[in-house]
Design brief:
This is (2Fe-2S)-binding protein. Keywords: Oxidoreductase. InterPro entries: 2Fe-2S-bd_N, 2Fe-2S_ferredoxin-like_sf. GO terms for molecular function: iron-sulfur cluster binding; oxidoreductase activity. Strands 2-1-7-5-6 form a five-stranded mixed beta sheet. It is globular and about 30 Å long. The protein is built from one helix and seven strands. By secondary structure, the protein is mainly beta. The chain has one domain: Ubiquitin-like (UB roll) (Roll), CATH 3.10.20.
């Protein structure tokens, strides 16, 4: 499956979650909003809120519990207009 991560086209396997797709092509999921550390998910079941990522258009999503869909356009940092 093809998806776009921070403007770069990437590939993943059918059945991947957003988290597993991103971690298969990047060293971390996102940066912490509270420091310089990188994050890679924590609980892996949608409870801890450590795996939020943003869609280029639409709401932010929990990467660990969201299935990847063909053509998803994802951001590892909050878009400029995000509160």
């Amino acid at each position: 499956m093809r998806f776009v991560l921070d403007g770069a086209e990437r590939q993943a396997l059918a059945g991947d979650t957003v988290l597993s797709a991103i971690l298969s092509v990047a060293p971390a999921l996102r940066h912490s909003e509270f420091g310089t550390e990188t994050r890679a998910g924590f609980c892996l079941m949608g409870a801890c809120q450590d795996c939020w990522v943003w869609q280029e258009e639409g709401p932010r999503i929990r990467a660990c519990s969201t299935p990847l869909t063909e053509g998803m356009r994802l951001l590892t940092d909050a878009p400029g207009d995000w509160p």
